[in-house]
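Section 5.1 Outputs to date
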Amino acid sequence: MKILSRAVLRGWAATLTGLVATFGMLLGPAAPAAHAVTAPPHFANGFGLTVVSQPKWVDANRRTFVITVKSTQVPVYDVLKDQVSGEHVVMVTLPEGYDGAAGTRYPVLYDLHGSPEYPNSSRYQALAERSTKGVPLITVTPNGGARGWYTNWVHPDSRGRQNWESFHLDELIPFVDANLKTIPTRAGRAITGHSMGGFGAFHYAEDRPGLFSYVGSFSGVLDLQNPLLRAAVVGSELLPNIGTPTAAPDAIFGPPVWPLDRAWNKASAAQNVGTLRGMGVAMYAGNGGDLTDNPVLAVAEKVDRQAAVTTAAHLKAAGIPYRFADYGDGSTWAKGCNGKHAQDPCLQADMNDFVKLIMKRLRHP
């Protein structure tokens, strides 16, 4: 067998190198290796928030993490089981491929939970992760308390202020913008919520329209002039299964009766839609479905739907465009959706639709 000379081998090597270089110029530069996120972002204190526990991934998928903070605006609150009064858990879902070291910035959706729910529940993780699969969007679900009602309380008790609105709008939003790769403007921010959180989303958007470019409500408590919904809010302040009550029934909005109900009327989302002009608006609700099947959740949804109908009437009168997904018993809205309150298939369909809407308006990569 003839052995090739070193000179011949060197010649072949030079030829192959030249061919590789030629193909490289034709095909363009090689794509960089995909960035594998191994650790969640590190957060610095600021804007009235102190980090108690740095972000931790909730599972091996490394898309969603929780961080625990203390707030100067809500130093203590009524807790549910396993919550620590004064410590606020915030859950964040990052878009796939998020890289804190890169220059890419993302819009943020604030998703407000209902009562009595946890911000870091599997429900809200699923809503965020499923609706944003392949979508360049950060989702943030902050603690709203079992009965915080996303407002600055009129008559806080001796424990100190319960300024949930100030906590979220003045502390949390700039805190998130300072520590994550966000688009820190109105054009990069939307807000929505379920039930109590639906009220919170509209209330925040109406109070501070300069912060959000889109607002949504999933079966939200939008009409605080409705006697049934006033009773529901007061009831949430008294029921021990929503955290041991420590404040008076009129602590949040004051007395719910005329002529002492000024705070209720001022906060009612349905009648104060004027500031939403120029913002995207969407509402979602069922009709409760079969009222003999789980009548509590059926009636709750029916009342919240009526609140959305009232809100829609005020939006129409003000000439403000909106989307109202009025999906009845849910049979044509999503598989497994029965038109009742707090049903995961209905809420997932709501969130999927809402994310598609907001991504048409928000700035994003």
